[in-house]
Amino acid sequence: MIKQIEETTSYLQNKGFENPEIGIILGTGLGQLLNEIEIITEASYNHIPNFPTATVELHKGKLIYGILEGKKVVVMQGRFHVYEGYTLQDVTYPVRIMEKLGIKTLLVSNAAGAINLNFKKGELMLIEDHINLQGSSPLAFKGVELLGERFTDMSAPYNAEINTKFKAIAKANNITLHEGVYASVVGPQLETRAEYRMLKIMGADAVGMSTVPEIIVANHLNLKVAAVSVLTDECDPNNLKPVNIAEIIEMAAKAEPNMITLFKELIKSL
Predict the structure, then answer these.
(1) Distance of alpha carbon 170 from alpha carbon 262, whole angstroms
(2) Structural domains of the chain, count
(3) CATH no. for residue 85?
(4) Which family does it belong to (predicted)?
(5) pLDDT tens digits for 132-150?
(6) Is pTM, for the whole model, over 0.90?
């Protein structure tokens, strides 16, 4: 993997990806942040050596480099999921590349279902901790110790200082920003009523199919990390209706301006 990382990094550096400070992973329906970026260069995933290719229609599949609020950023427009048939090492490979390019901070967004019924769809949740239910670890491979500490500490995976800033920005801009625990499952099927009850008992406030693998690897690489979920549906097991993907996308779009405000103001303050 070290040889592959070097090859990929070299390709991107030759394309003009120069010393980004901040990495951003855009989740479902959150692509409008790109309109705020002064784009310098970009690369399609299918052209980048050793990169996986995005297969979900809602995820575009480009790595973008530019300036946002005066900072150099590298943005993943489209992410990878285990449910697409990728390994956890594939899913997290871009995080390793962004770190190699120079990022010190990783900001992640996703769409999630609200397990905590005090949280409403269209609102945002700052992730303060997580539960990994994806069945394995992106660090569970031979030679991982050559890339960082094998037994990575996860006592505080989300950066407290960044989270405090996010909360202050939300308050100043009158944005509802809950704080909670995100459970990451494999998917792609949605949960049953019994599974939603189990997740609630476990202490999850929201559930999704991404983010946690990237957070684990970011901690493995000693990056500062923060993540925000757009709550796109309410997962009430006693009143569960069939899933409406169009409505989920609509909710993500509704929450997008608030997410953009949070990310822009945070980057300005870093």
Answers:
(1) 7
(2) 1
(3) 3.40.50.1580
(4) Belongs to the PNP/MTAP phosphorylase family.
(5) 999 999 999 999 999 999 9
(6) yes
